[in-house]
């Protein structure tokens, strides 16, 4: 077809010239300023926000680059990759070390897989030395952010504190550090013990409180008063460890809301929901079934099955194809030389049942996005509890531990008449035993944890200090948490072994565990 020619008259050309002259004059009068870096960033953020939110799962090309050798290694390789992404390292000996790295100013920076390791004890290499280091360690165990008001709040509930919590709250505006002298006293007592009985000091500060009690019972103490003081020191350091449990649980709940899969998933969403992951997993499962069906092994090709080509690849599979091609090139992997291994891998996948429970397999086979999953990973993991409800369970049990810690110590004292119970965790929750101000204390604690760690999207931080928060703030999640812990009754140490989603397992994951330190 001949190219169409557009002919313009002299009048047309004159009008165009007049238009361009006017435009040039306007540009001189109102020159366009180059955009500032801030304006460029705003434009970029707006453009990013306008794009459809998506989730990318990184398992596909990670498997390729992991050096997978044989089909029998698939499950092990996947498990190691998940551990690496969610725990930050395949070296389990460094896990506990990472949890006590004081250079970390926020537990949200720790991989989510480590935040569930409440059982980790302080390694000997990280034992603080001298009163200054001991004080810094104690403060960090209570609040990695170093929030003075939260630290004062926590220690003002300990048994031997002179200024109690209701006084700290009332006098906060006039003296923000009221009550802080007790943490200094605690650190000073530990420092003296470090000089006089290092083994006892190490047992207390590292979380081996049963061993500390045994050392105390064997020692020839000069007076009963000294022994009673040391027993109280063990009990209150047990509460410091319980406060540490609450920090870990809160940080884990916060990360679960944002992105519990760490680097395994990349997304621009502010909250990653189970349904997002389910939909992406279903998309990848469809691609996997297509690949497994279309792939031609060497033996099948000999039998007459044609080889698939790039032209046969559906458009939805092209991104994965390009990923594999790019990663293979980056790592110097010659895919042609891997045909034998790929043949074995495909044959292995074809005969291996899909792992996971029935509900997971049904979800993968479903063709709809509505899958009945909870709205958040906290609800999925913790029996339907939301982020603030889950943390409130930990708060209530921490407040209970302040009342129970001395009783738990007595149970492990062979010379004490208190009977050792079959279940060594704290007794069932009873709000009436917490004192008159327990509900206010729970709301205050939740307010500060949301401010310092959770930073959830529903938290409205108006710059208030906790005594000036809205009176009703935190009421609903704490009431729901109270109903949850009341219904659970006595928790057993073995509840962790329950099935995923079981309320007993949820209770263990959200509970403080002083009995763990009192068993070592």
Describe this entry's structure for a reader.
It contains 24 helices and two strands. The termini are far apart. Mean pLDDT is 78; it is low at 1-8 and 46-53. It has a two-stranded antiparallel sheet with strand order 1-2. It has helices at residues 10-29, 37-50, 59-65, 74-87, 95-99, 112-115, 130-142, 148-155, 165-170, 181-196, 198-206, 209-218, 224-258, 274-294, 298-302, 318-330, 339-351, 358-365, 377-381, 387-411, 438-454, 475-488, 503-510, 514-517, and strands spanning 55-57, 265-267. The protein is mainly alpha-helical. α12 (209-218) runs antiparallel to α13, α13 packs antiparallel against α20 and α20 packs across α21. The protein is elongated and about 85 Å long. The protein folds into two domains: 88-263 and 380-517, no CATH class; 274-372, no CATH class.
Chain-wise SSE layout:
Elements: H1 10-29, H2 37-50, E1 55-57, H3 59-65, H4 74-87, H5 95-99, H6 112-115, H7 130-142, H8 148-155, H9 165-170, H10 181-196, H11 198-206, H12 209-218, H13 224-258, E2 265-267, H14 274-294, H15 298-302, H16 318-330, H17 339-351, H18 358-365, H19 377-381, H20 387-411, H21 438-454, H22 475-488, H23 503-510, H24 514-517
Helix pairs in contact: 3-16, 7-10, 10-11, 11-12, 12-13, 13-20, 13-21, 20-21, 20-22
């Amino acid at each position: 077809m001949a190219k169409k020619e557009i002919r313009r008259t002299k009048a047309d050309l004159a009008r165009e010239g007049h238009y361009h002259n006017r435009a040039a004059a306007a540009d001189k009068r109102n020159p366009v300023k180059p955009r500032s870096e801030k304006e460029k960033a705003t434009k970029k953020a707006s453009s990013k926000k306008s794009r459809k939110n998506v989730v990318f799962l990184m398992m596909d090309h990670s498997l390729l680059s992991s050096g997978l050798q044989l089909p029998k290694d698939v499950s092990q390789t996947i498990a190691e990759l998940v551990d690496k992404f969610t725990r930050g390292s395949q070296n389990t000996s460094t896990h506990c070390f990472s949890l006590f790295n004081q250079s970390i100013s926020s537990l949200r920076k720790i991989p989510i897989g480590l935040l569930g390791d409440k059982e980790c004890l302080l390694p000997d290499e990280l034992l603080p030395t001298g009163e200054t280091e001991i004080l810094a360690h104690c403060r960090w165990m209570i609040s990695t952010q170093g929030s003075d008001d939260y630290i004062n709040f926590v220690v003002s509930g300990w048994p031997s504190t002179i200024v109690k919590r209701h006084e700290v709250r009332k006098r906060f505006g006039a003296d923000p550090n009221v009550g802080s002298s007790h943490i200094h006293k605690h650190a000073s007592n530990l420092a003296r013990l470090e000089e006089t009985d290092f083994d006892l000091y190490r047992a207390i500060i590292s979380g081996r409180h049963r061993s500390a009690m045994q050392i105390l019972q064997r020692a020839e103490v000069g007076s009963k008063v000294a022994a009673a003081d040391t027993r109280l020191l063990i009990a209150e350091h047990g509460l410091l460890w319980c406060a540490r449990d609450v920090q870990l649980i809160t940080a884990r709940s916060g990360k679960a809301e944002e992105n519990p899969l760490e680097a395994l998933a990349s997304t621009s969403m502010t909250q990653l929901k189970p349904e997002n992951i389910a939909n992406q997993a279903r998309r990848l499962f469809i691609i996997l079934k297509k690949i497994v069906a279309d792939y031609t092994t060497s033996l099948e090709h000999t039998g007459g099955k044609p080889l698939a080509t790039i032209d046969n690849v559906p458009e939805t599979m092209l991104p994965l194809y390009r990923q594999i091609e790019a990663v293979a090139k980056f790592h110097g992997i010659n895919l042609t030389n891997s045909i034998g291994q790929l043949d074995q891998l495909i044959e292995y996948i074809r005969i291996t049942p899909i792992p996971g429970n029935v509900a997971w397999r049904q979800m993968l086979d479903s063709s709809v996005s509505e899958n009945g999953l909870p709205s958040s990973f906290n609800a999925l993991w913790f029996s339907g509890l939301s982020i603030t409800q889950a943390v409130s369970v930990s708060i209530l049990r921490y407040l209970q531990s302040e009342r129970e810690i001395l009783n738990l110590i007595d149970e492990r004292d062979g010379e004490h008449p208190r009977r050792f119970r079959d279940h060594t965790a704290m007794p069932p929750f009873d709000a009436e035993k917490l004192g008159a101000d327990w509900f206010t204390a729970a709301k205050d604690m939740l307010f500060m944890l949301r401010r310092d760690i959770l930073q959830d999207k529903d938290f409205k931080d108006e710059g208030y200090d906790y005594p000036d928060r809205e009176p009703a703030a935190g009421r609903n999640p704490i009431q729901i948490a109270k109903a949850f812990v009341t219904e659970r009754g006595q928790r057993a140490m073995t509840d962790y072994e329950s099935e995923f989603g079981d309320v007993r397992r949820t209770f263990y994951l959200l509970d403080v565990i002083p009995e763990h330190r009192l068993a070592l």
